[in-house]
Amino acid sequence: MESIDIKIPPDRIGVLIGREGSVKKMIEERTECRIKVDSKNGVITLTRGENAVGFLKARDVINAIALGFNPEIALKILDDDFTILETIDLSSYISQKAMERVKGRIIGKEGKMRRLIEETLNVHVSIYDKFVSIIGNFEGVSAAREAIEMLIDGAQHSTVQKFMERKKREIEMRSMDWYKIS
User: Fold this and answer.
1) Closest to 149 in 3D by CA, of 104, 93, 109, 69
2) Which of 173, 134, 171 is closest to 151 using CA atoms?
3) Is 163 exposed, middle or buried, given 0-12, 13-18 or 19+ CB atoms closer than 10 A?
4) Which class would CATH give 3-79?
């Protein structure tokens, strides 16, 4: 059987396991995979069952939890074939010195910008360590990534907000076209 090792931060191991093993068990049952936790080294060994897609989704759920998402949001990856996880490594864009400032721009005053991204584009955003991660459908995640990259590049919040509103309208129009066809 195929297996992979996933390194996760020590403070996220308990979240992955869940109360009395509930989260780990749910991932295993819904993906037909086996999860072995080495809490001493922070290594999760994921072993594939019969379901290859389940294996990939289990990997993404574990990574989402490792990147700061709560299990309820991370498990949405299992619910829908169109829900994906996208991660931006801020260290590939900016210096360590600018990290806190840029994360602050993405979060915004009292979390307003992050909340605006989530509500406008119907995604979930986690900012953990040097990573910004997004869970949602492909179009929403793609637009959120673009908005976050604009913030990283120094665009004004108002400019990013206008961009997101335009993207939201485009996504809604495409989904209306889809319903006309079917």
Assistant:
1) 93
2) 134
3) middle
4) alpha beta
Superfamily of segment(s) 83-181: K Homology domain, type 1 (3.30.1370.10)
pLDDT of residue 178: 58
pLDDT tens digits for 85-108?
999 999 999 999 999 999 999 999
| pTM of the shown model | 0.93
What amino acid occupies position 66? A
| CA–CA gap between residue 182 and residue 177 (Å, rounded) | 9
Q: Is 141 exposed, middle or buried (0-12, 13-18, 19+ CB in 10 A)?
A: buried
Domain boundaries, the chain: 3-79, 83-181
Residue 37 CA to residue 24 CA, distance in Å, equals 9
Nearest one of 26, 75, 65 to 44, comparing CA atoms: 65
